[in-house]
């Protein structure tokens, strides 16, 4: 009898410990459905860590179309943030509307203590970004910015190799991002309408893809700001993008290095890649999984090592898992991590200055 009691107590203690170690499910709201990346959450497999509890979208035709495609109930679709928050009590909200709407999402969520993750970039301009940061700090919420490149194992391998001294001191970085244009990649009309609006997107390709390079440089240089920023924009497809630039070159001048960012909606092949040139070698992050390191030998010789990298381990292979882990205390971001507010405020300074430089045709000084 005593043995049976010990067994039962042991089972109960084991069950209790299992319950204690089970990750809590994050109650997630979604603000907007017009962003083409919203499919990342709508199609996400149920892993028990995140539950989508409500959606805010006034365009019911769009909502119904996505409901039919992804299988969520129209009963969880609300007209306003206030209605959704009151009805569903989310712990966090992921913003999938226009970039201009990011500030309004934070204004609705922060006072209620609701954490926010927005799609890149953080805001349409630096003024919006400062208001968002102030609200996040005042109400002690996480405010993350999600970039696809934050999931890339090649970028993290490049970061590690650089700081391990694999190519010596960094001197030049070239980062190229973009695609062949919306006529060719065939995005939905709701996404296209605000992506090509200078108010709702803050600009064209200079914002849409320039943010990747600014974010990565801020991370690679551990929060160092460029001394100056010079940007040139073009409009190579005016019939498709009549209101905004669709091609840009941004030069970032640092104390000991220079970065050349090349965001464009005119690449013949879609790309997100970067090249890091040091004093003794080069790192080529060719795409998400392929990376090469060249070590200099003599005048123009080199040895080359190629890496085929596996996806990043959980939770870093999924932005919603990162958000849940941060909120529930099992993860802490390093300073100037690509998701972090510290990084993205500098990223916004760079983008804001780049837009001003392109418009004025003058170099903008960030550090005197």
TrEMBL record:
Superkingdom to which the source organism belongs: Bacteria
Molecular function terms, GO-annotated: nucleotide binding
Pfam families referenced in this protein's UniProt entry, alphabetically: GFO_IDH_MocA (PF01408), GFO_IDH_MocA_C3 (PF22725)
Domain Gfo/Idh/MocA-like oxidoreductase N-terminal: 45-144
InterPro entries listed in its UniProt record: Gfo/Idh/MocA-like_OxRdtase_N, Gfo/Idh/MocA_Oxidoreductases, GFO_IDH_MocA-like_dom, NAD(P)-bd_dom_sf
Location of the GFO/IDH/MocA-like oxidoreductase domain: 157-283
Protein name: Predicted dehydrogenase
UniProt lineage: Bacteria, Pseudomonadati, Bacteroidota, Bacteroidia, Marinilabiliales
